[in-house]
Amino acid sequence: MDRDFRKGHIEIDFPTEPFDSPLALLRDSIRVFYSDLPFLAAATLVIYLPGKLATQFLCYLLDIPFAGVLSYFVLAIGDVLLSALVVPAIVYGLVQRFRTGRAATLGESLRWGRRQWIKTLANKLKVEITITLWGALLVIPGVVAMMRLIFVDVIVAVEADLEHDVLGRSKKLAQGRRWRIFFVLLPMLILDLAAMFLVLDRVRGVTESRVAFAIADSVLALGGQLATVAALLMYLGTVQKRVTKLKP
Predict the structure, then answer these.
(1) Of 12, 46, 96, 179, which one has the fewest beta carbons inside 10 Å?
(2) First-last CA distance in the chain
(3) Most distant CA pair in the chain: distance in Å?
(4) What single DSSP character describes residue 104?
(5) 66 within some domain
(6) What is the model's pTM?
């Protein structure tokens, strides 16, 4: 809505369910994901597919193979750049759907994503560096850091100009809820790993064609938006006190 652009943040003026149960949160996340799959697919693939194709073309020009550290590094950078645009766009569209009963248009959502892209990117880099450094010490500190910073992307997308200490805000919201967040994230991570294994290792020809690999990687990114939906619902259930059922 134009008022969000004028105010510089997305107004949360609708009731939501509190984040009390990981199982209920997972159930609602799956329901929202499938009910809004056309919007999620459009918002994800319109950015990821050309972005992934461009990345693979760059790797082809530089003779970077599919496997190896350099390839992983290039793909990771690409994922951060693309998700910094897509995630705030998806959050904007879903919040409008919760508010009005229908998602915002793709163009309007991408316009919000573009508005928040630099701030999202800067904070995503901070998150990645923090998790990597803690994870380099031991696995558990890395997981704890991931749980504490789970709300960063959503905070940038929703609170936008209102919040400057985004990482601090995420840590505050996660305080006292880490076990609930963990039991939401755990199945998400398992599903992501399983999907990656099935698509990249079991589907014939994916790792033999750069175009096929880019398409498969984009589809995996779409599946990964389930975690975006979950993070948004956890955020809404944390900052809101009023209770109602989300409409499918």
Answers:
(1) 179
(2) 21
(3) 55
(4) P
(5) yes
(6) 0.89
What span, in angstroms and rounded, lies between the C-alpha atoms of 171 and 236?
A: 15
CA distances from 89 to 55, 112, 134, 150, 225 (A): 21, 6, 29, 17, 12
CA distance 45 to 142: 30
Q: Which domain holds residue 50?
A: 36-239
Q: Does residue 47 form part of some domain?
A: yes
What is d(CA 191, CA 201) in angstroms, rounded to the nearest whole number?
15
- Alpha carbon distance 4, 96 (integer Å): 10
Domain count, the chain: 1
Q: From CA 63, how far away is CA 71, in angstroms rounded?
A: 10
Contact 88, 99 (CB under 8 A): no
* pLDDT one digit per residue (tens) for the chain, 248 residues: 567 777 788 888 888 888 999 999 999 999 999 999 999 999 999 999 999 999 999 888 888 887 778 888 888 899 999 999 999 999 999 999 998 887 788 999 999 999 999 999 999 999 988 888 876 666 677 788 888 999 999 999 999 888 889 999 999 999 989 899 999 999 988 888 887 777 666 555 666 788 888 898 899 999 999 999 999 999 999 986 443 444 44
Q: Is residue 18 part of a domain?
A: no
Whether 176 is covered by a domain: the verdict is yes
Burial readout 7-21 (b: 16 or more C-beta within 10 A, e: otherwise): eebbebeeebbebee
Query: CA 160, CA 112: separation in Å to the nearest integer?
Result: 10
Cβ-contact 214, 161 below 8 angstroms = no
